[in-house]
Design a protein that fits this description.
8 strands; about 35% strand; Pnp Oxidase, Chain A; single chain; about 25% helix; about 160 residues; alpha+beta; eight-stranded antiparallel β-sheet
Length: about 160
């Protein structure tokens, strides 16, 4: 394996082994907001989560769909952490995308001990929640040999 393949494997491992991502959004004026959300990934480019449409990050996505995402293990010792940084576009799901996304989300939630199966009816009006998807277009990880930023683009 070359270094790019090694770093891609690191990114995949981080996404596979974690349950929460930090979602960075901004409102229509550019004011930033970050939120931790439980996610279910389909491959390494689609990330699904359930939120209230009234949550700050949900309102921000409606106004400005460009988001950033970080997935990392916060249990590692200081100085040994690694994360996956992503640029993505987010949206509230409807139609066939909603059915597929709900299947992905519900299966992963149940596998992690979620207390119930999520159904499409749980995320359609007048329900309190909606299903969202972020589609990542760029991934990077920390590369200790890079300088000065250390974030290196990877293919997942």
């Amino acid at each position: 394996m070359n270094q790019q393949e090694d770093l891609g494997a690191v990114a995949r491992g981080i996404i596979d082994s974690n349950q929460y991502m930090v979602l960075g959004t901004a409102d229509e004026t550019g004011r930033p907001w970050v939120s931790p959300v439980y996610y279910a990934a389909a491959g390494y480019t689609e990330f699904f989560w359930v939120s209230s449409p009234e949550a700050t990050h949900s309102r921000n996505i409606a106004a400005r769909p460009q988001v950033s995402i970080v997935v990392f293990d916060l249990q590692v010792p200081i100085g040994t952490g690694q994360g996956v940084y992503m640029s993505a576009v987010a949206e509230e799901l409807e139609g066939d995308d909603l059915n597929r996304g709900m299947d992905v989300f519900s299966r992963r939630s149940e596998a992690h001990g979620g207390q119930r199966e999520w159904k499409v009816e749980d995320v359609r009006p007048p329900a309190l929640y909606r299903l969202y998807r972020a589609t990542a277009s760029e991934h990077s990880v920390l590369d200790p040999s890079a300088s000065p930023d250390h974030r290196t683009p990877v293919i997942v």
